[in-house]
Amino acid sequence: MNFTSSEPVECDREPIHLSGQIQPHGVLMALQEPELKILQISENVVTYFGIAAPLLLGKSLDKLLSKKQAKLVLDTLSAEATEIPE
Fold it and tell me: Between these two residues, 76 and 25, which has the higher pLDDT value?
């Protein structure tokens, strides 16, 4: 691949999904429905929310976000689950 040419770089072939890292401007979480229990959360959560990741594991999402925000997440997940794919 020649990076000095004006041809577009084929980014879809870059193995970015194998880096073991997330983008630095976000927090990655794995939640268990329906209670939105935090199963996994990235270490950088402390940078954005001031709470260390180990303190959030096993807790409900409303320990990190407001109850209103957590409900919005749950409502969005529920709506997506009931949509019929075309």
Answer: 76
